[in-house]
Amino acid sequence: MNQKQVTWLFVLCVVGVLVIGTFVLLAVGILRPKMALLKPQALETPDPDSTEAVVIVTPTPSTAVKASPSPTPTHAAYPVTAVNLLVNDVPVFALSGRDVAERVLTEYLNDCAVENLTETEHLIRAYIDAKLTLAPVDGSVDYLTYEQAKERLAASRTLVPVVRSVEHAELITGEIETVTSQQPYLPRGARLYRSLGKAEHTFGLVEVLYKSGIAISSSQTAAQTRVGSDPAALAIEEGTYLFTEGGSAPAGKDAGELQFIPPCNGAQLTSFGLRNGKMHYGVDFSLRAGDTLVAPESGTVIFLGERGDYGLVIEIRHGNGFVSRLTHCASPYVELEQHVYRGDPIAILAKQENESQPHLHYELLIDGIPFDPMPYLNAQ
What strands, in cross-sheet order, belong to the sheet with 132-136? Predict the structure, then answer.
């Protein structure tokens, strides 16, 4: 190869290098914008613990000279697990999740079940009387915390109605029957209570049904059992005998083997019957305070105690329905249920500050009715 050929070869190589470099530069300039479009961009990852969502609103392009500003977000996001509680298909509030809703409803049911239970009651059953549904949250009702939901349910028991059945013991007191009869040996207008009466008491178990805390029905769950003694009527005898001042009194039955003596050595002051328009049910004997009082007949002391204006009273049951009643007594020598004999000292006459004449008031009751004791004392 001569010198001329070498020179031309060198020139061709330089030209080739220039052409290739030019094509490379052109290719880079053309492809750079497209590569920029394909380059990954860095995105901000939202905080998973955040309870608020960032809402970006892109304005729609318009031909206006000045674009409107982007609106401020107004709704707060709920947790992904949030649910609406529906009662009979009506939403009442929203909670953060199914587990929270179940816990709220379970504790609410337990609280309602034991509400106001007493020691004599026990719970039979309790249940929520409504259709409950958990649905995806939709923002139509209040979003509540666990405590707020419990307070909402407690404040309005009809929101989620609970039905509970409670059984309790019940003591039932019956009515006392009143029986009235006429008594010809009592003065007209007087009333003798033979029996104060006793009601029937029965024990039973009763089941009470409550809804939303209000009793709606009750029923007996077991046969009632009578407790205590048998019931008794209130027995009243109304007097029909017309007493007159100074008139005679009806006679009582025969004393039989009983032989009465005067209960003291005093003189008789007053008689049995009407006295100044009022009925006097015994006789009075004039005495001095401290004088001895004796048993008019043998018998058993059945009462020993204070009784109003009568002061200390001693009653002796003699048998056959006869009872002696001595009033204004003091310093008793006998005790309750003690047996005494005719003429035994039983007490002394008490000092009577409100009386001008100290006296013993003596009554004789026959089958519970006061009679004039003098015919029985004078029989000896």
Answer: 90-95, 83-87, 132-136
